[in-house]
Design goal:
Its EC number is 2.7.4.6. The chain is mostly helical. Helices cover about 40% and strands about 10% of the residues. The N and C termini lie far apart (about 30 Å). Bound molecules: inosine-5'-diphosphate and magnesium ion. Inosine-5'-diphosphate binds next to loops. Inosine-5'-diphosphate binds near residues 46, 106 and 114.
């Protein structure tokens, strides 16, 4: 998910481009203005953290939408997290998205599911309707994914 700061800063295309160029497949995408309830659900595992109220406010105050996406391909959850970089951009490797574009933990531009279970939960939350995930085969799929 591209967070409101990533949208405001015009990073949508750059972030999508990184996943596309790596060879991952886009199976769902939408802009959403998250409600407070959706932001709270999305970050439910952090509800006891001191920054939780301001995180939820920032995600749901309507100053910018978020871009929710589902990407598919080999090891995409773990690789996606690596492409994002560390939660604190000051610890993120320079080749990562956060390491290239961000300097603040409160404005780190992107969210990525951290496990299969959280991906399932988050995909269900942000794309709840039948037909929102598109099954398709990129013409280059085997050129990218084949192990021979
Ligand atoms: P992640 O986004 O790398 O998965 P999490 O620990 O799940 O990191 O935290 C979710 C989000 O909460 C972070 O991306 C960041 O925006 C915010 N956050 C995490 N830790 C802090 C903090 O110490 N201060 C302020 N915001 C934080
Ligand atoms: Mg997280």
């Amino acid at each position: 998910m591209i967070k409101p700061d990533g949208v405001q800063r015009g990073l949508i295309g750059k972030i999508i481009n990184r996943f596309e160029e790596r060879g991952y497949k886009l199976v769902a995408l939408k802009t959403v203005a998250p409600s407070k309830e959706m932001a709270e659900r999305h970050y439910a595992d952090l509800k006891n953290k001191p920054f939780f109220p301001s995180l939820v406010e920032y995600m749901s105050n309507g100053a910018a939408p978020v871009v929710a996406m589902v990407w598919e391909g080999s090891d995409v959850i773990r690789q996606g997290r690596a492409m994002l970089g560390a939660t604190s951009p000051l610890d993120a490797a320079s080749g990562t998205l956060r390491g290239q574009y961000c300097v603040s933990i409160g404005r780190n531009a992107i969210h990525g599911s951290d496990s299969f279970e959280s991906a399932e939960k988050e995909i269900g939350m942000w794309f709840p309707q039948a037909g929102e995930l598109i099954s398709w085969t990129p013409a280059i799929w085997n050129w990218v994914m084949s192990n021979n």
